[in-house]
Input
Amino acid sequence: MTTQKKLDNDTQNTRKNILKRILQVTIYIILIAIILFVSAGRIDWAYAWIFIATSILIIIINAFILSPELIAERGRKKENVEKWDRSISRLLIFTCLGIYLVSGLDIRFKWSYELSLWIHILGIFTFIFGNVLVSWSMIYNKFFSTAVRIQYERGHIVVNAGPYRFIRHPGYLGMIIYHLAISLILGSLWALIMACLVVALFIIRTIFEDNTLKNKLEGYRKYAEKVKYKLIPGIW
Output
């Protein structure tokens, strides 16, 4: 009876955290839309709508292909998060939102020259590719959290399948790729400055997280000896 009660509680908590994650993502998309259209001073911005529609489509696909356990983890209140990651995460939120703010202001004040259609299309495909890499990573890594922490309560182990056979942090590489692509979709070269700050923060986070995993996650040092590169195969 106690076991059944525990299972019922776990199921209830999983559902609650999934709903929480859906709410988080929904609010974030709405916030992005508000920033884009308010900063641009217009809503007839085709590439902004294309970007938002593409993002929503990716979210919907992920909702079907990712495990409920992973979605619940990304929505739950996190315990034993590394202190340094709290600071980096806050900076990432502001710099990521900064991409949309600068893009909108660029459209309003025409800071950048108008980009060719093929550059916008390249940005869309690059954005999709980056997200595919992130989704691929999440499919194989059920511990892919929004915060850097050792998930003792979930039996955290080293993941060495899928894209983790080639680099140790494929999810971060995907995020770097798609954040760089956003400014191309939206047609703002100035937004690339904010995107480069995002890239720098992800590189810093990769270094800190890799060291944390080496020191705290059993088996990670051996995995790091086998898979030598953090982000870019053959380089780093």
About this structure: The helical segments are 2-40, 46-65, 68-75, 83-109, 117-140, 170-186, 191-216, 220-226. Residues 28 and 35 are 10 Å apart (CA to CA). The chain has one domain: 2-226. Residues 2-226 form a domain with the Four Helix Bundle (Hemerythrin (Met), subunit A) fold (CATH 1.20.120.1630).
